[in-house]
């Protein structure tokens, strides 16, 4: 399953993902996060950056831009040295792939916003839920601090 976490800048997308990751992993899920980087070139895995935070929360990470793709994945020394294994496995062995961003890709999504009216900017795919501290009518709605409930909701989608 691919699930997009989309929303406005600084709305809490990374925070939500990093807070959910231990819950999802505790439930036995193998989860990869594809982090959208729309600003051309990037440096990979610098301490304090979103990709570093997500990786250190327990997820494997893919960073994508218009000119470069990086995959940061935990592997054993043997697996990391076996090019055929890396090629054959890539992302197909994950239970869940979460994208942070990719709002125009049209994937099923959870929208994270500061204000309810901002949800309208993210209608390019099926909105499964909205995360906002203010009530959002017409959608399944969670507050930012309801991380456990949001994780349970995602788990219910996988069942």
Automatic annotation (TrEMBL):
Name of the molecule in the record = Molybdopterin-guanine dinucleotide biosynthesis protein B (MobB)
Q: Which organism is it from?
A: Archaeoglobus fulgidus
Domain of life assignment: Archaea
Cite the CDD domains for this sequence. MobB (cd03116)
Which GO terms label this protein's molecular function in UniProt?
GTP binding
Classification via Pfam families: MobB
Q: Which residue ranges does the record assign to the Molybdopterin-guanine dinucleotide biosynthesis protein B (MobB) domain?
A: 2-133
List, in alphabetical order, the GO biological process terms annotated in this UniProt record. Answer: Mo-molybdopterin cofactor biosynthetic process
């Amino acid at each position: 399953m691919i699930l997009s976490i989309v929303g406005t800048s600084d709305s809490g997308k990374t925070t939500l993902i990093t807070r959910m990751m231990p819950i999802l992993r505790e439930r036995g899920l193998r989860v990869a996060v594809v982090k959208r980087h729309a600003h051309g070139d990037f440096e990979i895995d610098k301490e304090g950056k979103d990709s570093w935070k997500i990786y250190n929360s327990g997820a494997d990470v893919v960073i994508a831009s218009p000119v470069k793709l990086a995959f940061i994945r935990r592997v054993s020394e043997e697996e990391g040295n076996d090019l055929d294994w890396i090629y054959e496995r890539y992302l197909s062995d994950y239970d869940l792939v979460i994208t942070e961003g990719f709002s125009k890709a049209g994937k099923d999504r959870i929208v994270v916003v500061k204000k309810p009216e901002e949800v309208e900017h993210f209608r390019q795919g099926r909105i499964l839920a909205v995360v906002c501290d203010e009530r959002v009518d017409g959608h399944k709605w969670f507050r930012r601090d309801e991380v456990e409930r949001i994780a349970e909701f995602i788990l219910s989608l996988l069942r």
